[in-house]
Amino acid sequence: MGLCQSDEEKTGFEKSKAIDKQIRQGAATDERTVKLLLLGAGECGKSTVLKQMRILHNNGFTEDEMTQQKRVVYNNTVTAIHQLIKAMQQYQIKYSSPDREVDAMVVQDVIKQGRESEPFTPELAVAIKSSKPSDDYFDKGAA
User: In which residues is GTP bound (predicted)?
Assistant: First the structure.
């Protein structure tokens, strides 16, 4: 600019140049940024995809985040097994052996005590692995 500029105009011009520079830098950064829109119904796995991307492309999770995620996995597993047990009772599906009924009681006790988000005890782990309907249920084609 010329000699006829006031101090305010010079200051304004310098601020304008600084803003323009920031915009150019932001545009360069935005060009390298990939934006992804995940659409889907609730509970269909959108956040799971984001977590997997984070694990693959970032440094993963902090210790606190991993502890929290483990609790979610424990909870989901115990809750799912409990739902299966309730369905077996509702539809009068027999267990493969009387021992499996004991296993079902172990899972139900964990739910009653509110410990479904805690790490599995050895007894609970065996109960989860063993909980299944009798084999003849599947042989009849009822599944």
Answer: 43-48
In total, how many domains does the chain have? Answer: 1
**Which residues make up each annotated binding site?**
43-48
The string of pLDDT tens digits covering residues 46-67 is 998 888 888 888 887 888 988 9
**Which among 71, 72, 52 is positioned nearest to 61, based on CA atoms?**
52
Interacting residues of 32 by C-beta distance below 8 A, sequence separation 6+:
none
The tokens for 14 are: 């310098």
Query: Which residues line the annotated binding site for GTP?
Result: 43-48
Domain that holds residue 76: 66-143
Question: For the chain, how far is it from start to end, CA to CA, in angstroms?
Answer: 82
Alpha-carbon span 113 to 120, nearest angstrom: 13
Q: Which residues are annotated as a binding site for Mg(2+)?
A: 47
Residue 133 lies in a domain: yes
